[in-house]
Specification:
Elements (H helix, E strand, L loop, with lengths): L1 H25 L11 H13 L11 H5 L12 E14 L4 E15 L2 E19 L2 E6 L5 E2 L1 H14 L3 H21 L6
Parallel strand pairs: 1-5
Antiparallel strand pairs: 1-2, 2-3, 3-4
Amino acid sequence: MRNASLFLGRTLSSITVLLWLTSFVAGQPTISSDKTSPVSVIRKYCELDLEGARLSSENPNADEITALATWRIEPGWDTSVVVSAFEIENTSLGPKESRVTVRYVVLGKMFGAKVAPAQQHKELVTFVLKESSGGWLIERPLIAPHVSVSAAISALKSLLIDEKDPEQIRRLNAGIAALTRWKSEAGPSKSP
């Protein structure tokens, strides 16, 4: 009889813990595949940024990327971070505020026409999003563009079109050559 009571007690305890865990997990926010979830907003933002949407207000995707954030005007950036990839690393989802951490693989920086390689490293950025009536929007931080090698090459080539100064043309061509080497070394830019 004692064994039956012990078995019943353990079974009831196990059921109680299981019910508690189920109710706890059910009450937690989950990562949604919804297009307006914090994770999907950050993924879209990073994909557009990788493609160069923030390098120029004339980019066809400039308005689309700006619509994902609380700031309505993107600054004119002189510096860009050249990356080979990004990956969503961590999430902390809440009902009104969420945080999504992104890991970038950094190859170097671009300062106008000047390209500066860096020791390849990882950079973590935690984006804070706020829920609005239209869905989740990135509130902070406003970071410099994080672009693929291909997007950086395209940006320099577009500057080269109307350039007349021989010294600036030389700098742009040197930047394009350096980025082309990075591209062959790093392989294609990717996102998860």
